[in-house]
Amino acid sequence: MNIDRLTVRYGSFTAVDGVSLEVPKGSVTGLVGESGSGKSTVARAVAGLTPYRGTVTGVAPGRVQMVFQDPYSSLNPRMSIGDAIAEGTRVPRAQRVAEVGRLLELVALPATYAGKYPRELSGGMRQRVAVARALAARPELLIADEITSALDVSVQGAVLNLLRELRGELGLTMLFISHNLAVVRYVCDAVAVMHQGRLVESGPVEEVVGAPRHEYTRTLLDAVPRLARA
Ligand SMILES: Nc1ncnc2c1ncn2[C@@H]1O[C@H](COP(=O)(O)OP(=O)(O)O)[C@@H](O)[C@H]1O
Ligand SMILES: [Mg+2]
Questions:
Q1: From CA 182, how far away is CA 221, in angstroms rounded?
Q2: Nearest CA to ligand 1 atom 4
């Protein structure tokens, strides 16, 4: 997927200003920056949910799936987990139960959870369901937008590990959005740093973290607890 000079305006305010970014097939690219820097706006543009100037190539808007921050509002409370996942699948009706079971197991949940409702699940489990639902559509690109930010620290690691495993198993192409550079480093091959709607730096994640070129990237690194950097 290739983004070229993406610009998004809300009225007279430019939220994303000429951002160019490549997410190579099978890679996980991180988009990092503080709150309000324009990360979610990039995601919405790529998914075709907001008008933009510039070009997005290499992926059809209909083949982009997103997982959002809040696991409590992203699932319909009246719909069973199985139905929520089945909605997105592309398999014939007769194969849906098996496909839902396969997807649940892919995100390390028992297939029997298909009959449960969101209120019966923890935040971490709901995020797993949201990932399963996104994968059900067999997306060409998965966008994960701050998917661990609302979770307990104790379960964040498990969800990040799940993404790493899925990436290995499925060869997922992913745009992984976070305000936390330590989290991005754990999951991504490459990272792009956004600041006030612009891309200030990008490259292989170890290079950017190891030798940040931009002052703002250094500020982000200083915000990461020392232990996580070791
Ligand atoms: N629908 C909208 N209308 C007006 N301004 C918006 C809208 N959505 C986001 N913004 C503004 O655009 C900027 C970037 O927002 P966003 O992309 O959500 O940033 P991030 O995801 O990095 O926190 C912020 O200043 C935000 O207030
Ligand atoms: Mg956001």
A1: 8
A2: 10
Distances (CA, A) of 9 to 45, 51, 102, 110, 162: 11, 8, 41, 44, 35
Query: Ligand 1: residues within 6 Å at CB?
Result: 10, 13, 15, 33, 35-41
Structure tokens at 219: 């500020």
Q: Whose CA is nearest to atom 16 of ligand 1?
A: 38
pLDDT, tens digit, 9 for 90 and up, residues 43-85: 999 999 999 999 999 998 889 999 999 878 889 999 999 999 9
Given this model, what pLDDT does residue 226 score? 57
DSSP labels, 110-170? -GGGGG--GGGS-HHHHHHHHHHHHHHT--SEEEEESTTTTS-HHHHHHHHHHHHHHHHHH
Are 21 and 43 within 8 A, CB to CB? no
Under a CB-based contact definition with an 8 Å cutoff, are residues 33 and 195 in contact?
yes
What angle do helix axes 123-136 and 153-170 make, rounded to 10 degrees?
Answer: 20
